[in-house]
Write a structure and sequence with these properties.
Layout lengths: L12 E5 L3 E8 L4 E8 L4 E5 L4 H11 L2 E6 L5 H4 L2 H8 L4 E5 L13 E3 L6 E6 L2 E7 L8 E5 L2 E5 L17 H15 L7 E4 L14 E2 H7 L1 H5 L3 H5 L9 H12 L1
Parallel strand pairs: 4-5, 5-6, 6-7, 11-12
Antiparallel strand pairs: 1-2, 2-3, 3-4, 8-9, 9-10, 10-11, 12-13
């Protein structure tokens, strides 16, 4: 396994280390955000998925002889894009920021250099170093939410958590699209290796009280509440995490009225 030179206060965890790729995970911020750094072993190029802190990840790369080349954004909520501008400022003109074009539907005006354009429930290729991933448009949590799959990994952002799925009641969210997405992802996941690793955008407790930050595809397909309910109308209607009566939901209702 890689020996990662630590940060002064908080070191990332090594999730995967093989001949092709190193994957680091760190929980940053007060919303239990999980950030993931992917490093191409052969070129030492790296990409950060949903940076909460741009300087943190540049420092990690500088300390280990890697070059942070780009950021891939699963979606445009602030807690997944907070570190984008700083990462771009430090990375300079060559630093690339990828996001799906449909995130503009919920008002994304943040920095980006490249737009994913694939249709809903389809994918296109994205590359870092010699590593090729498929970027799947998986709407529901947001219009252009993107899930990245490749090299034994599923980076699912807020579309799919380990025990459930993301809420659909924020501005740009759509419960029907979320259900379509989960059906689509369920089909995609069944084509992967059973021990491929799912990496979500947040760490949330499972029903048994445990707090994992990774899960094998096989286990997720057998235990995730949203996946298990997606083809059953009654079970789907009973899911309590698709919408909440909180300040964020109220804000989303006001935004919908204005538009």
């Amino acid at each position: 396994m890689a020996c990662v030179n630590p940060m002064p206060n908080h070191s990332p965890k090594v999730i995967l280390d093989n001949d092709e790729i190193i994957v680091l995970q760190a929980q940053l911020g007060e919303w239990d955000n999980l950030n993931h750094l992917l490093i191409c072993k052969k070129t030492k190029d790296a990409v950060i998925v949903d940076p909460f802190d741009g300087k943190y990840w540049h420092d990690i790369c500088n300390n280990n002889g890697w070059k942070l080349r780009s950021a891939w954004l699963t979606h445009s909520h602030w807690d997944h894009t907070k570190g984008v501008e700083q990462a771009k400022q430090i990375g300079g003109e060559d630093f690339k920021i990828f996001i799906h074009q449909k995130e503009k539907e919920r008002g994304w005006e943040g920095p980006h250099t490249n737009l994913f354009t694939c249709a809903e429930m389809s994918d296109e290729q994205v590359v870092i170093g010699q590593l090729k991933f498929s970027a799947h448009c998986t709407p529901g949590h947001t219009p252009g939410h993107t899930t990245f799959i490749g090299h034994g990994l599923v980076l699912s952002g807020d579309c799919l958590f380990l025990g459930r799925c993301g809420r659909c009641d924020l501005f740009g969210g759509d419960e029907d699209k979320q259900r379509q997405t989960l059906r689509y992802l369920k089909r995609v996941l069944t084509t992967l290796e059973s021990d491929d690793i799912v990496l979500p955008g947040h760490q949330y407790a499972l029903e048994d009280g445990t707090l994992p930050t990774t899960m094998k595809v096989e286990e997720l397909l057998l235990s995730n509440a949203a996946i298990l309910a997606v083809d059953d109308d009654r079970a789907w209607s009973l899911l309590e995490f698709l919408a909440f009566d909180d300040s964020m939901a109220k804000k989303a209702r006001r935004q919908r009225k204005r538009t």
